[in-house]
Amino acid sequence: MTFRDWQTLSPAAAAREFRRRVETGLPAAQQRAVLAYVVPERELEAAFMAAPAGAPLARVPYLAKDLFDVAGVPTLAGSTFLPEVRPQPARSSAIVSALGQAGAVLAGKTHMHEFAYGITGENPHYGDCEHPLFPGRTTGGSSSGSAAAVAAGIVPLALGSDTGGSVRVPAAFCGLYGFRLTPRDAWISDAVPLSTSYDTAGWFTANAADLRTTIQALVGLTQPDRAPRGCYLEMPGLDADVAAACRAAALAFTSLAEPAVRDRLLQGFNRSADTYNTVVSVEAWEYHRAWADRYRERYSPGVWQRLVRAHSVTPEMRSAAATHTAALHALWSEYFQSHDFLVLAASPTPAFTRDQFTLEHRLRVLGLTAPVSIGGLPVVTLPVSLPSGLTTGLQIVVPHVTSPVVNWILSREA
Question: What is the per-residue pLDDT across 342-390, written as a single tens digit (0 to 9) for each?
Fold first, then answer.
């Protein structure tokens, strides 16, 4: 169902339809893995009824990743203990409030990779999120529950966050449209952090028109006054079918990067995964250090191992990360002096199977996503179909959230 389909329903019918879709759209185990909290049906009906008439997102139901606060509802961030060390929120996060003002109706919250520290959607506490159309494959993480809910058709809109690809990768794996904002803005600054240097808010929809409507309502869209100039950068390390599909999809609206541009970008993007891992390790530990040792047994082993990796970060590693960050910011700035957008593949493979939950595959993903994360840049993610029926995606990287490229690319898609 699109935004318009939901908007034709009465408040009572919309509340019933949401409940029906939860119960029929996901097996019981996946309901537990995907949904952290569901608004009771009577309350949801009242929320639909109270949605401001005429607002751009009036009566559009959505789910929020459970690192955004909802007043009176404990925020878990994929853990079992966060409410024990962090007060229950008395007010909702800024992005939740903004969606409410735009008419959208919060229907619940979604589970996630524990503390957003992973891209596989694993969670030993609540269950691993599986791709709704391909059981046995992941939705991707860390915005796993949000992607699963939109891919399963439960809601047409869901909030996620993106630090190292946590909107971009689930959108690619699940065949969704995604939008990633920028670090340190008002809509991420009050969420449970992973890495304040890289954390961004974002969201998923099932189609381009609904993504465009959401961006228009929350950010605003600008009209291009000329044909935008961009290029497609072919990155190494893609599966053959992904490489072919992404190239074909990108060349439908742009050209290959010229050799000099390609070489400069590829050289500059080198070591981005190392820089990303160094910065995230230090900043994640800084948030958790007050209680980490006391709650050590309550963390999943994989997340704990990533947290304590901060102890092995040397001054030399910090210095190298800072130097590379400055160089990469300069490279992005230089690129956007002559270009309006850059297109990259969003994932090196289709949705992972469990035996692909490895460090090697995580580093393959970061090779594609980390240069953008370090640059602090917004991204529109477009789905790309593969011959197998699975999907990957394209990252459309732009210099700022109100770039006219956003409107241009989504108008083409819609």
Answer: 999 999 999 999 999 999 999 999 999 999 999 999 999 999 999 999 9
pLDDT single digits (tens) 260-273: 999 999 999 999 99
**Model pLDDT, residue 163:** 98
Do the domain assignments include residue 17?
yes
Number of domains in the chain: 1
- Residue 192 DSSP label: P
Q: At what angle do helices 315-338 and 259-269 cross, to 10 degrees?
A: 160
3-state secondary structure of 112: coil
Taking alpha carbons only, the member of 67, 217, 70, 199 closest to residue 146 is 67
> How many alpha carbons lie under 13 Å from residue 345 in its C-beta half-sphere?
29
* Structural domain containing residue 178: 3-218
Q: Any catalytic annotation for residue 385?
A: no
Which of 166, 197, 272, 403 is flagged as catalytic?
166
Q: Is residue 87 part of a domain?
A: yes
Q: What is the pLDDT of residue 414?
A: 83
CATH number at residue 164: 3.90.1300.10
Q: Among 79, 92, 93, 142, which one carries the catalytic annotation?
A: 142
Q: How confident is the model at residue 44 (pLDDT cuts 50, 70, 90)?
A: very high
Q: Is residue 245 part of a domain?
A: no
Q: What is the largest CA-CA distance in the chain?
A: 61
The alpha carbon of 99 is separated from its chain's Cα centroid by a whole number of angstroms, namely: 17
- Answer yes or no: 109 catalytic: no
Strand partners, 70: 73
Query: What token pair was written down for 7?
Result: 């908007």
Residue 133 lies in a domain: yes
pTM for this one?
0.97
Active site residue 347: no
